[in-house]
Amino acid sequence: MINPTAWPQLWLPPGTMGWVLPHIADVSLLQIIGMLAIGLVIGSFVNVLIHRLPQMILRADETAPAVFNLGTPRSHCPHCLHTLSWYELIPVLSFCSSWGRCRHCNQAIAFRYPLVEILTAALFGLSVLKFGFGYSALLAGFLCAVLLALAWIDAETFLLPDVLTQALLWVGLIGSAMSLTPTPLMHSLSGAVLGYALLWLVSWGFERVAGKEGMGQGDLKLLAGLGAWVGVWSLLPLLLLASVSGLIFGVIQKMRGQLGHNGHFAFGPFLAFSGFACFFLGISMGA
Description:
Elements: H1 29-59, H2 93-97, H3 112-131, H4 135-157, H5 162-177, H6 185-210, H7 217-230, H8 235-255, H9 268-281
C-alpha cells in the first residue's frame, strides 16, 4: 500500500517533481536549433496526419474508393486543388510569405497549419532541454507529435486512429526496454495493461448503468499507449487530471449551450494533455 505522504504535492516549488529542465546547460544553441528545425518538419507531417487520417478512416468503407493515403494525392490547395510546389511547403515560412493565402486562388489558408508546426517545434525544443540531445529527446518529441495529432483529430472528428495509438504503445514499450525513457520496462508494461483495463471497466460499468456507451475504444487504446510511457504509478494522477479538466470543460460547454444534444465531448485531448504533463513533469504516486 502506498503511503499517502509519498504522493506528489502539486504546490511544491519548481524542481521538486521534475519541473526544471535538467539538461538546459548541456545542449548547445546549434543542437537546440537543430531540434527546432526537426520539429518544424515533423509538424508539417502532423498536419498531414490531422487532415488525411480521418478521411482515410471514413473512406475505408466505400466500395470503390479513390487512391487516398498519406502520400497520394500530393499536397494541394483544398479550394482550387492546385498541387503545391516544394517552396510552398516550407513550414511556417510558406504561410508567412503568402500572407496566409493560396498563391493561385487567393483563398485563406487555415491558421491551424503554422500553429501545429510551431507547437511541434516548441515541443521538440522542450524535449532536448529536458532530456539532452540524443535518442531520448527524439523519442520525447515523437510522443509530443503523436499526442498533438491525436488530440487535434479527436477534437475535430471524435476519432482516435489505431495507427497512432498503436504506434504510441509500441514505441513507448520499445523505448522503455532500451532505457530511452524514464519509465522502467515492468512499469511500462503494467501501465499499458492497467491503462486499458481501467478505462474498459469504467466504460463497461457506465454502459451497464446508463444503458449506452460512455467511452469509445480509442480512449482505451490511448490510455494504454500513455501507460507505456508514464508507467503504472502515474496512471491515477493522469486519469485524475484528465477527468477533472474534462469535467470543467464539459460544465463550461453545458452552461454555454455548446455541449450537444447527446452530452458527448472528445476525451482524447484531455488524456493527451494529462499524459504529456505526467511524462514531462514526472507526476507519479510513487518514487
